[in-house]
Design a protein that fits this description.
- By secondary structure, the chain is of the alpha+beta class.
- The chain contains 9 helices and 8 strands.
- The protein has helices at residues 26-42, 52-55, 80-89, 134-139, 187-197, 215-218, 228-245, 247-259, 265-290, and strands spanning 3-9, 12-18, 76-78, 98-103, 108-113, 166-171, 179-183, 206-212.
- The strands form 2 sheets. A 5-stranded mixed sheet has the order 3-2-1-4-5, with helices on both faces. The protein has a 3-stranded antiparallel sheet with strand order 7-6-8.
- A hairpin with a 4-residue loop joins strand 4 and strand 5.
- The two termini are 34 Å apart.
Length: 291
């Protein structure tokens, strides 16, 4: 299905057209696909560092797409002017059913649906990128999605964050109530938490408790006295490891904690780096075998 894409990374905005990657599930595939490819290329250090956006013209349909499209390029770069033309055309015809935004800075995926395509269904869901259920959710639209009379709404956004790693309770000495947050927390949501706690720096607040959503990790996670910024950085690292290397890599970190319980952020970070190198080596060996 056709779509136009806005891709935001490091504050820069790029535009693409696709004749294949429109739909409810493909944006999630693309989001993960670009991150995995960038990680594989950047981990070698042979070709320099690649941004996700640079790889979009190189992305080709794989096994996640219909067989008829296998090996075909998913995206064509377009100018901001061309994008504006396609976007305005959505108001009068059904040529472009989907207008999709992938925001790698805020970890958001947004959908705008063409009102001239009555067959489209409007989701009212929040799902986590990286969640194993995400693809199933968007692949099985009934009865999770219902028809509505207005499908073209600029303010229709599906905020999709990566799967949470930690839940924290946090206390500020400026108010009596405690705060709660799921980490990793985006910059946008950090500002909201600071307003809630009436503070200008979350590192000035006391972390009262930290619990991991993964049972195996939580059983051996006894870190106390860490600042918010370091815990959030750790959550981002763990989530990136899971998104780029898979659940098995995340489980490997948890297993290391079972052998020797984690007592500080630096210890977990070192384990993450070791696991990344191990999985990168496995990937290289698998490629050598296939060649």
């Amino acid at each position: 299905m056709k779509a136009i894409y806005t891709v935001i990374e490091n504050g820069r905005t790029s535009y693409f057209r696709s004749g294949i990657a429109g739909g409810y599930s493909y944006p999630f595939f693309v989001y993960e696909y670009a991150k995995r490819m960038a990680w594989q290329l950047n981990s070698s250090d042979l070709l320099g560092k690649f941004n996700f956006t640079e790889l979009f013209p190189l992305l080709k349909a794989n096994k996640d797409f219909p067989e008829v499209y296998l090996g075909k390029c998913l995206f064509e770069p377009i100018s901001a002017l061309a994008f504006a033309d396609y976007e305005s055309g959505m108001a009068s015809d059904d040529g472009i059913p989907f207008n999709i935004t992938l925001d790698f800075d805020e970890r958001e995926i947004a959908f705008v649906f063409n009102k001239n395509c009555p067959q489209l269904l409007k989701p009212k869901l929040t799902v986590f990128v990286g969640d194993t259920d995400a693809r199933d959710v968007f692949g099985k639209r009934n009865p999770l999605f219902k028809n509505t009379e207005s499908l073209f709404e600029i303010d229709l956004r599906s905020y999709v964050e990566e799967r949470p790693v930690f839940a924290i309770r946090i206390d500020s000495d400026t108010i009596s109530e405690q705060g709660f947050a799921m980490l990793p927390l985006s910059d946008h949501n950090q500002k909201g938490l600071m307003e809630e706690l009436e503070t200008d720096d979350l590192d000035k607040c006391e972390i009262l408790s930290v619990s991991a959503y993964d049972k195996a990790l939580n059983a051996h996670f006894v870190i106390d006295g860490e600042k918010f910024s370091r815990l959030n950085m750790l959550a981002e690292k763990l989530n990136r490891l899971r998104l780029e290397c898979g659940d098995a890599a995340f489980s490997a970190v948890a297993a290391a904690g079972a052998a020797e319980p984690f007592s500080d952020v630096d210890g977990v970070m070192q384990v993450i780096e070791n696991v990344k190198k191990d999985f990168a080596l496995r990937e290289t060996q698998d490629m050598d075998i296939r060649m």
